[in-house]
Amino acid sequence: MLEIVLGLAAFALLCLYDYAKMKKYTGWVSLLFFAAVLMLVSATARLTDFSRIFSANSPWFRRVFFGLSLLSYAGMVYALFFALPFSKTYGAHAGKNDVVDTGVYALCRHPGVPFLILGYLFLWLAAGGTELLIAAV
């Protein structure tokens, strides 16, 4: 249950990060994003029973679902960091928030979210666990 609270706190920090970025605060704001990502990755790793995926007698489909979860997380990282024009998003012009409507952003406003949900669902199918399913929802 601690991991679920940690994940919720991570999303609260992400909301605070978005608010601070919208208000054009600088400096410490990027630390909020880093802390939130670290908390979310830590909570997810603690919830995942890797022995169910990689033990010698685990079924083959657990490894397939784990691979699909990694692909989903890679899609999220791509949507967040590589699908956006880097210099406009994270460089000197970062304060000006233009709407991006090309690539994966043409499909949906926040394409990282479906990738994150798919990542958690595939990870739950790979490792099992009720709390991991709760995290996916």
Low-confidence stretches: none
| Outline type | globular
Mean pLDDT: 85
Note the gap between the termini: 15 Å
Query: Beta-strand level of the residues, as a percent range?
Result: under 5%
Count, helices: 7
Helix and strand content put the structural class at mainly alpha
The main sheet comes to: none
Query: Which percent bin holds the helix content?
Result: over 70%
Number of strands: 0
Radius of gyration: 17 Å
Give helix and strand order, one letter per element, not per position: HHHHHHH
Question: What can you see in these coordinates?
Answer:
- The chain has 137 residues and is mostly helical.
- Helix content is 70%, strand content 0%.
- It contains seven helices and no strands.
- Helix 1 packs antiparallel against helix 2 (29-47) and helix 6 packs antiparallel against helix 7.
- The radius of gyration is 17 Å and the shape is globular.
- It starts with a helix and ends with a helix.
- The mean pLDDT is 85.
Comma- or semicolon-separated keywords:
single chain, 137 residues, mainly alpha, globular
SSE layout and pairings?
Elements lengths: L1 H21 L6 H19 L2 H5 L5 H23 L3 H5 L21 H16 L2 H7 L1
Question: Short summary of the structure?
Answer:
With 137 residues, the chain is mainly α. The chain is built from 7 helices and no strands.
